[in-house]
Amino acid sequence: MSYPAILLALALAVAALFAASLMVGPAGLPASASLRALFGAEGRALVLVMQEIRLPRALLAAAVGAALGLAGAAMQGLLRNPLAEPGLLGVSAAAALGAVVALQTGLAAAFALALPVAALAGAGLAAGLMLAVAGPRGGTLALILAGIALSALAGAATALVLNLSPNPFAAAEIVFWTMGSLRDRAMSHLWLALPFLALGAAMLLTARRGLDALTLGEEAAATMGTGLVRLRILVVGGTAALVGAATAVAGAIGFVGLVVPHLVRPLCGGLPSRSLPAAALGGAAMLLAADLATRLLAPERDLKLGVVTALIGAPFFLHLILRTARAEA
Amino acid sequence: MRPPRAPPAALALALALAAAAPAAGGAPARVVSLNLCTDQLAMLLAAPGQIAALSHVARDPRASAMATEAMAHPVTHGGAEEVFALAPDLVLAGTFTTRATVELLRRLGVAVVEVPPPGSVAAARAAIVTVGAALGREAAAAALLAEFDAGLARLAAPPGPRPRAAIYAAAGWTGGAASLSGEILSRAGLANLAAELGLDAGGYLPLELLVLAEPALLVLARPYPGASRAEELLTHPALAALAAGRPAIRPDDADWVCGTPHLLRALAALRAARDLLPEAR
């Protein structure tokens, strides 16, 4: 399949899953009525359900999934390590910590943008720290161990902040911040995340030629005129913006950034510049599918998105570790 | 079993109790309550000086209908060691919480009376009788019951239309027909949307079902300080749009979490809201 055909196929999958996402809900509305309601041509209650409840959920699933797929592909490109992923490296957990701090200190209530900004700061710190600890080349063991440590630290701090909250419901929401959910999100969440998602995507797409050059090695990339410092700033900053904004509204969702780039990379000839847009589309499709699964498997239970992505992603991760270990042996 | 006391200490205790409490024959003199609802029943029924300690939640005005009264009593955080050190001769506990504490206290020989969380007005009346008997205050319990029953009779809804109401609390929790809040709703002359949707004991009501049902009255929860996603749902634009077209009331949570006569305040608030509905005429 040619590259444009792959992108087209992925885009069609996203469109189909997006439509399915709009059609699934506890009310079990007929498709034709839901479609008319989506465009405002039905009773007020039905219009509210479609425009204010189902539409933001579907849009957020697509946007958050695309952000996670793109961020994973870019991190794997920068670290030249197939196991690099925002969830595994603790970037998502640190973003969740930033978001929780912004919410529980009242900062987010006073100033709405504080929520994504704090999550972005958490994600940025974690991604920067990761680069410093694991080194630019990102040795697998150092990378994974540093990720475990950072995830544990951020997770513990998140639990601490939520346990100390005066709100009796906050502590029960540790699972939301570590597993993610899109239940009952509103358009306001999308508007809050979208500017940062756009900024992050633009930064990573700017970095794609540099990432291509980096596949030949740092020296080769330098001789080709790629500024490595600028490249790192673009990728770390872009990843932080994407993961920060996504986590601020949907919680930490793992494995999307690991699974999707791996599936699309062989189809795209291994070049980051080509796999980045494909990973974004693939990520959107995966998260839309995962969110559909949460609603079809346990409609009344608010099954967490991270549960579904981990059920798919964790065995995949083990498979990748084995393959990497064999390649390194 | 209380550890034996040295005579002077026992004398001092006896004097202190004689000053404070009308020492009824066999009535416990040092009662510790571990549960918000038994705290309130103890405060309503106990003789002066009979309460040794309440749970710390009793002082939280958002959860406790008697937070001010609770300030006059010591509180514990419900740990077995903390409670045992108070040398109680009776411990009142709920059946759901502080399980480990209750087990441990029983093994240490402390008398424990467990009161289930009220699921109905009948259960609330039974709890008043149980706690009254345990405290040796049967007369006080009978008086409280009479007052409660009079209030229920006074506030009983007249026969007539029953407009639909929906309880919507944090995370979309709603009380069904077989719950205390559901029964209060029904006694106020309202039809419960949860029952219509088959949520008998209560459960999570999906926002889209609430929006589509368009109930005549929304009964919403008051938010706690701090932030939570569960309560963020109560500011969802779809709910706000729904609430714009109909009345919404926010009864004080503390009034109807426990089966005490404070339920009458929640019932009165719901009755008043119901009587104002055009659907009720």
What can you see in these coordinates?
- The complex is a heterodimer of chains A (329) and B (281).
- Chain A has helices at 3-23, 31-38, 44-79, 91-104, 107-110, 114-134, 140-164, 174-179, 187-206, 208-214, 218-223, 228-250, 256-264, 272-297, 305-328.
- By secondary structure, chain A is mainly alpha-helical.
- Chain A has one domain: ABC transporter involved in vitamin B12 uptake, BtuC (Orthogonal Bundle).
- The longest helix of chain A is centred in the first third of the chain and has 36 residues, at 44-79.
- Chain A starts with a helix and ends with a helix.
- Chain B has a 5-stranded parallel β-sheet with strand order 3-2-1-4-5, with helices on both faces. A 4-stranded parallel β-sheet of chain B has the order 8-6-10-11.
- Chain B is globular.
- Mean pLDDT of chain B is 89; it is low at 1-24.
- The A-B interface holds A 25-27, 44-46, 48-49, 52-54, 103-104, 106, 108-109, 165-170, 172-173, 176, 184, 186-188, 300, 302 and B 170-172, 203-204, 206-209, 211-212, 214, 224-231, 233, 236-238, 241-242, 245.
